Structures are given as C-alpha cells and as structure tokens.
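In the previous chapter we treated chains in isolation. Here, by contrast, the input contains seven separate entities that must be folded as one system, with a combined length of 679 residues.
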Amino acid sequence: MKIKPLADNILIEGVKQEEQTKGGIILPTSSEKDRPEQGKVISVGPGKIDSSGNIIPMEIKEGQIVLFTKYGPNEIKVDGQEFLIAKQDDILAIIEK
Amino acid sequence: MKIKPLADNILIEGVKQEEQTKGGIILPTSSEKDRPEQGKVISVGPGKIDSSGNIIPMEIKEGQIVLFTKYGPNEIKVDGQEFLIAKQDDILAIIEK
Amino acid sequence: MKIKPLADNILIEGVKQEEQTKGGIILPTSSEKDRPEQGKVISVGPGKIDSSGNIIPMEIKEGQIVLFTKYGPNEIKVDGQEFLIAKQDDILAIIEK
Amino acid sequence: MKIKPLADNILIEGVKQEEQTKGGIILPTSSEKDRPEQGKVISVGPGKIDSSGNIIPMEIKEGQIVLFTKYGPNEIKVDGQEFLIAKQDDILAIIEK
Amino acid sequence: MKIKPLADNILIEGVKQEEQTKGGIILPTSSEKDRPEQGKVISVGPGKIDSSGNIIPMEIKEGQIVLFTKYGPNEIKVDGQEFLIAKQDDILAIIEK
Amino acid sequence: MKIKPLADNILIEGVKQEEQTKGGIILPTSSEKDRPEQGKVISVGPGKIDSSGNIIPMEIKEGQIVLFTKYGPNEIKVDGQEFLIAKQDDILAIIEK
Amino acid sequence: MKIKPLADNILIEGVKQEEQTKGGIILPTSSEKDRPEQGKVISVGPGKIDSSGNIIPMEIKEGQIVLFTKYGPNEIKVDGQEFLIAKQDDILAIIEK
C-alpha cells in the first residue's frame, strides 16, 4: 500500500515528544502535549497549481525532519497507522542534524 | 438513477473504519469516529471554471481510493443510500493498494 | 405570479425525504432532518456577471433534480408556499432518473 | 424629505407576512417571523464602482417587488418610519404579479 | 482644534433618535436604541488610494445628513465631545430635507 | 535605545483620557475606558510594499496627534514603558491643535 | 543540530520580561504576562515567493532584537529548548540599543 499526497500535501510520520523534567523523570503527558509538532516526511505531493496553470514545485523533500504548527496538519489513520498530512505552508522549518 | 457531480465536486462512497484493539477486540465506536475519512470515488465533476472561463481538469479519477479531511465533504442521502460529496481540494491523498 | 431569480440564484422546490426504516415503518423526523437537500429547479437566474462585465452562463436548467448542501440555500415563503433559493455554487450534483 | 441610497444600496419598504393557518386563523407571529423577506423598492442607488472606476449599473428598478435574505438588509428608522436598506447582492429574486 | 479624517474616513456628529409613542409620550430608550444611525457630516477624508496609486474621490460632502449602519462607525471622544468616524462604505444613504 | 517600526507600522505614545463629569469631578475609570484612542506619533515605518514591489509612502508623520480605533493597535512594553504599535489603516484621523 | 526556517518564517529566541514594580519588587507574573513579545533573531527564512514566482527578500536579519505581537508567533520546542517562529508580518519593529 502506498499513500500518494495530492497537490501541496505532505505525508508525515509525527514524532511525539516525551515530556521530561530536568531531573530525568518522565511525566505523564496530557493528550494536547502528545500532539506532535515535529515529524519525518514520508512522501510529498507534486505541488499546487498556480493561477496560470503551472505547478509550483515543492521545497520539502522526502526524508526531511520538519517542524510544523501543532494544529495545522490533518490527523489521518490508514490501516491502523497514524499519519499527519500537512500543506507545505504549515511547515515552519527543517531540522538538520 | 445517476448522480452527476457539478464543477469540482466528487461523489464518494465512504469507508467507515472499524476501531480494533491490538488484541483484536472490536470496540464500539463513537459517532465521531464513525465519520469516514477514506472512500471510493464513484463519479467526478467536469472541473471548476477558472477566471478566464477555462475548465481546470480534475486529477481524481473514478474508482480511486482517496483520503480526505473528516469534516470537509458534505454528507448526502439519496434514495436511502449515504454518499459524500467532496471538493477536489478536500482530497488529501490517493491510496494505491 | 412569477418569481424571477436574479444573477446566479436558482429557485427550487425542495423535496423532503421521508425517514423510513428497513422494515418499512416511517419514523417521525426531527425538524433538522426535514430540511431538504434535494429539489426540483423551478427557474434559473441569468447568471453572475464576472469582473469584465460578461455574464457567466448557468449550467443548471429548469426542471432538473438537484442535490445541494442542507444549509446553503435560503428558505423563502411567497404567498404561503415554501421555496428554496440557492446560488449555483451550492448545487453539488444533478440526479438523472 | 428624500432618502437617496448610495452605491449599490436599495431602499425598500418591507412587507410583513401574516402567518395564517389553513383554516384561516391568523396566529400571533413571533418577532423573528415578523422580519420581512419581501418588499417594494422605493429607490435605488447609482451602482457600485468597479476596480476600473466604472459604475456597474443596477438591475433592480424602483417599484419592483423583491425577495431578499431575511437578515441581509439593514433596518433603518427615519422620522419614525421603518425602512430596509439592502445591497443588490442581497436581492434574490423579483416577483412579477 | 481640527479633526482631519484620513483616507476614506468621514467624521460625523451623530443624531440620537428619541423614541416616541404614537400618543406622543417619550419612552426611556435603552442604550442600544441610543446608538445613532443618522448624523451630520463634519469633515471628509481625501479618499482611499486604489491599487494603481490613484485617489478614489469621495461622494459624501461636508454638511450632508447621512444614514449609516448602527454598528459600522467607530465611536470616538475628543476633548469630551463624542463623534463617529465611518468609512464611506458604511454610509447607506443621504437624506435630503 | 531606538524602536524602529517595520513596513506600515507606527509607534505611538498613547494618551489616556481622564473621565471628568461636567461638574469637574474626576471619576474612577474602568480599565476599558483607560485604553487610549488618541496618541502622539513617535516614529513611522518606511511603508508597506505593494504587489509590484514598490513602497507605498506613509501619510502619517512623526509628532502628529492621531485618533485610532480602541482595539486596533498592539500594546507593547519595552523597558517598562508602554507603547502602541498601529498599522496606518488603524489611524482614523489627525488632530490639529 | 540546525533549524532552518522556510519561506518568510523567522526563528526567534524569546525574551521574557520580568514584571517589576517601581519600588523594585519583582511580582509573580501570570503565564499570560510570561509570553514574550520581544526576542533575538536566530535565523531567517529565504523569503516568501510572490505570485510571479520571485522571492521577496527578508528585511529582518540574524541577530536583530525584534518586537512582535504576543500571540502571532508559534511556540515550538526542539530538544527541550523553546523557540518562537514568526512570519515577517508578525514583526512590528526592530529595537536598536
């Protein structure tokens, strides 16, 4: 099975951040904190079509680690696995490690 | 009887996802979880007309399995059968199996 | 008396759907379910004027059976008779029988 | 005294509809039902100016009976008399008797 | 002291309408009814600048009696005196007496 | 320290109006009444850039006394001192004394 | 690790302002007051692409101290460190010290 994003949609596997105190104790996180704001790009749409009918190429590439707004992307479940689908405009920054 | 979508509307037969625990027990789902976010395309409108009067051709084709935002499409009942009608922009991705 | 829609307005006689169980018993419907989402086109406006001053011709024709969003059209009462007035964009599909 | 509408404003004398049962008994109407959705055009503005500086001529003429959205027009009281002022886009249809 | 409106702003001295019954008794008015929807134009801005950089001349002139939407204009207090500042689009009609 | 506004932003020192009865007694004002709608322009941004890439020059000048909408400007505190930052469109009028 | 902002996004390290009375006593601040409206620019995106496909260069530079609207920027946490990501339009002014 392959999920192919349309237009400027980006398929992301979200990374949930563990809430850790300075002393190293992992606190139970509320569901709101659970919502990821960082993830790995699985696949990228071909790009949005502008008003002249040309495709605007995507800046985001497969495999990049991206930061996004917490409530921007759509949460989608396919065959029991959770994904995020974000528009390119929801991506705020790329993390290079 | 045939339902012919107008403009960039897409007629979809929604697929409701069964909520299943890892151990295989199917839990009763709340009505919100019942709302489909995946479906099979039944028929596709001719495309929206742009500001110059040209038709923007549709990317989605009949028979495709599509992912969409849970609350984007309209729920419509015709002759007792439930359908979804989505705009092409509500379609996030195509699932190829 | 004749009601002549303006611009891209469409005059519709709504069809209320009876809620019927599989066993054939007609259940009393709530007022929300009563709101039609299907109707017969009585008359059609000449079309909206675009930014260059040209009329955009209407795709919907008199006599067609149309599907529309439940809360898109305006409910209007003239001489005791109820009508719906929808914009062409509120029409999702045509039903051919 | 004369009220001269500006731009695409239309001065309307609203017609309140009496709620009458099939048997002919006039029921007390709630204030919401009182709000008119039909009226007689008293005077019409010269038309909105488009982005090129040209006036878009008005389709509505003085004396016409018009249908409009219940909450679109502004209610205005001048010298104790109630009027409605609607934009041309709020007018849905003309009633010819 | 002189208040000079900018762009398409219009400085108005509001006229509060006294609520009077048919028999001539003046009823105490609620503060909402107190809000004026009629006033005298004190001064007029030079006009809004369009997208080509040209000033769109104002139709409203100093001294005119105008009708406006009740909640459109801004209420402003300068040196203890109350004024309204409306955009030209908030002006619905001119009253000629 | 110097605060340099960007684009069409205007740095304003707000003037709070004392609520005074006709007899001269100063009443305690609620915090909402405290919010200024008048102020002195401290500095002015270079102007917004239009869609062709040209700067739209500012009409407001340093030192002017301006009237603005009560809730339009942003309240900003720098080194303990309170300022307002308004867009030029939030400025309704200039007061000349 | 490096965070590279996209389009017109700006990575900012927020500066929280301590609430201090005139007598020098630091008061406990509410979490709303804690939200920074001032910060240091860490890195700047390449700029938004306009409708003709050209990049609009950024005015904000790395290292600048900027003022922004309290609720405009997104709060982002990467590897336990808190950042703000603002659009260039959210930046109201630059502070030169």
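The longest helix of chain D spans residues 31-34. Residues 9-18+29-95 of chain D form a domain with the 10 Kd Chaperonin, Protein Cpn10; Chain O fold (CATH 2.30.33.40). Compare these points with the single-chain example from earlier in the chapter.
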